[in-house]
Amino acid sequence: MAPEVIKAEPYDYKVDIWSLGMMVMEMYERQPPYMDEPSTMRALFLIVSKGRPPYKDEVSMSDDIKDFIAQCTKMKVEDRPSAADLLSHPFLQNTCDSSDLRSLVEIAKNEACKDFENEEDGYW
């Protein structure tokens, strides 16, 4: 949640830019930011007071992903780029061909199906 939302301030589409940056960070680190905090309220307080948390393994991250996350999670709304601006960011420009993702999507779908098959709710 963007700091301005937590503080109940007026906000616009740039809350989604913040969320995008945090989601990319979460996907990279495989857990939500501030997940180690003892309560949701503490995590919200930290977002408002400190912004996004430091990276857990910054050395393994490319400069492009670090900069993309940093741009998206600027504390001052007016400093955050627009979605149109982000489209030209190197992190998004240096992507793989979408056909390369097909096999990864299939693997993920198969893994998800295995998880559901193990459930006793009878849906699978």
Account of the protein in words:
This protein is mainly alpha-helical and 124 residues long. The protein has a single domain, classed as Transferase(Phosphotransferase) domain 1 (Transferase(Phosphotransferase), domain 1, Orthogonal Bundle). The protein is built from seven helices and no strands. The chain is globular, with a radius of gyration of 17 Å. The mean pLDDT is 86.
Brief write-up:
With 124 residues, the protein is an all-alpha fold.
Binned, the helix content reads 40-55%
And the CATH topology? Transferase(Phosphotransferase), domain 1
Structural class by SSE content? mainly alpha
Shape, principal axes of CA atoms: globular
Q: Can you name the CATH architecture? A: Orthogonal Bundle
Helical stretch tally: 7
Give me the CATH superfamily: Transferase(Phosphotransferase) domain 1
Largest sheet composition: none
Distance between the termini: 34 Å
H/E topology pattern:
HHHHHHH
Rounded average pLDDT: 86
Number of domains: 1
The Rg value, from CA coordinates, equals: 17 Å
Query: How large a portion of the residues is in β-strands, by DSSP E?
Result: under 5%
CATH class descriptor name: Mainly Alpha
**Spans with pLDDT under 50 lasting ≥5 residues?**
none
Count of strand segments: 0
